[in-house]
TrEMBL record:
The chain crosses the membrane at residues 101-121, 127-145, 154-171, 183-200, 220-247, 253-274, 286-307, 319-340, 352-374, 386-407, 427-447. Keywords: Membrane, Transmembrane, Transmembrane helix. The keyword Secreted does not apply. This is DUF4153 domain-containing protein. InterPro entries: Perm_prefix_1 (IPR047928).
């Protein structure tokens, strides 16, 4: 069993290497992976073990010799050096096709037009409910075009999105409803997982592809933040100059610039991540090693603050919400750090720090669960409390099992692959919970 797990890890590693180095298109990588697995199966039938069959099968993919050579240089301690190292060959370098750039810009403008139309035609409450529906589908459309998705896969993406849109706009929410913002926030999670299906080309069952999507999400946040900072600086300078010459740009800024700039930046950031993966590959490990110890310090500080806050039933509601947001960020950091790690490297100091992060997050989650249960017992249940309770239970399971697998890896009892697979296989659970909050909570609480 462990051999087969190692084989899957090798194939995921090979696939990720090709994607990050832009050696070949994603559609061709899918086809090559199928061919690679067939070759491995045939070689195993001749008596080779998993590792030998994998390496020989890679060698037979002659059109990727240049990439295999680079892979061998980075991992010369393995049999790659003997099987894959070939003479240097020139490698064609290609830029982003003009057609793809045109599609990206068209989708960015379309997202801006959708948001602008929403501002014009919808009231504030309806706009807040539909904002994700006005933007996220354009990111999914880019990957649907990029991956050349078939009609069945596109239909599988469109149908749940349409259902979400209908429910969000048909449900008779009260004017001060608490289920309305809950449904709107959780619709974002459900829609983003639909983007994930488009990103992986409809092959959601692949652990490697799901991890690619987790890595993409982290890198997208980085690029979007950089674009937002740069755009904010340019906008601020422009506004300052216009005001000095007697022009007030406030109305144009709120009505036109921001509605186009923010959703457009999200689409462009998705394209940049896809086109420049080899650049972000160098950023990801650095970011995870910087923010993991900082996050540990933050969690320990928060534990101390909670311990001195008095009875758990008296903990401020806003504090509990902020703590939940922090735990979600911790899970995101965990996913991103695992996606950036070399799965074949032995356990090290950073893996120990990651376990400390998991244990600290578990302690915070346990305190939050106790506080929530205390508040529910004292003040009764509400949509917000139950939604938060459900999320914390999901986080508890996620973090606890990840900690267990991390201990096994650090003690040498298991490989890194099970820890990696656990992260990706648990992702759909969050999507299911988000769908429950959107679909079930409003009618269950009479839309209040």
């Amino acid at each position: 069993m462990e051999q087969h797990l190692a084989l899957d890890a090798d194939i995921d590693r090979w696939r990720g290497y090709l994607q990050r180095h832009q050696a070949i298109s994603s559609a061709d990588i899918d086809e090559l992976e199928d061919h690679l697995r067939e070759q491995v199966t045939d070689l195993q039938a001749t008596g080779l073990d998993d590792t030998e069959a994998f390496l020989v099968a890679i060698k037979r993919l002659g059109n990727l010799d240049a990439v295999s050579r680079e892979f061998a240089r980075e991992h010369s301690d393995r049999l790659w050096k003997q099987l894959s190292l070939v003479p240097q060959e020139s490698r064609e370098s290609g830029g982003t096709p003009a057609r793809e750039l045109t599609v990206v810009l068209a989708l960015a403008v379309a997202a801006g037009l959708a948001v602008r139309a929403g501002i014009t035609w919808l009231d504030d409450a309806a706009l807040a409910r539909n904002l994700a529906l006005l933007v996220v589908p354009f990111v999914a459309a880019y990957f649907a075009w990029k991956r050349r998705l078939g009609i069945r896969t596109v239909a599988a993406l469109v149908l749940p999105a349409v259902v979400l849109a209908v429910l969000l706009n048909v449900y008779p929410f009260d004017s001060d409803s608490s289920t309305e913002p809950l449904a709107a926030m959780h619709a974002v999670v459900a829609l983003w997982l639909l983007v994930g299906i488009a990103y992986v080309g409809g092959r959601w069952r692949s652990d490697g592809r799901r991890m690619d999507f987790a890595r993409f999400t982290g890198e997208l946040a980085i690029y979007f933040t950089l674009l937002a900072i740069g755009g904010g600086v340019l906008t601020g300078l422009t506004v300052a100059v216009l005001q000095l010459v007697g022009i007030d740009p406030e109305q144009a800024l709120g009505s036109w610039v921001l509605p186009f700039a923010v959703p457009g930046a999200l689409v462009v950031a998705a394209w940049l991540v896809e086109a420049k993966q080899n650049v972000v590959e160098n950023i990801a490990p650095v970011l995870t090693r910087v923010f993991t110890p900082l996050t540990i310090i933050m969690l320990l500080t928060l534990l101390g603050a909670l311990a001195t806050a008095g009875g758990l039933g008296e903990v401020d509601r806003e504090l509990l919400i902020l703590m939940d947001a922090i735990l979600v960020l911790v899970v995101g950091l965990l996913l991103y750090s695992i996606s950036a790690r070399d799965p074949l490297a032995p356990p090290g100091l950073f893996d120990t720090l990651q376990l400390v992060l998991l244990l600290a997050a578990l302690a915070v989650d346990a305190v939050l669960l106790t506080a929530m249960l205390t508040r529910i017992a004292e003040f009764g249940a509400s949509p917000n409390k139950l939604a938060a309770l459900g999320l914390n239970l999901l986080l508890l399971v996620h973090l606890a099992w990840a900690a267990r697998l991390s201990v096994g890896f650090l003690r040498g009892r298991s490989a890194f692959a099970p820890l990696e697979r656990w992260q990706t296989r648990y992702l759909p659970v969050y999507g299911i919970w988000a769908a429950v909050v959107v679909v079930v909570f409003p009618p269950a609480f009479a839309f209040a």
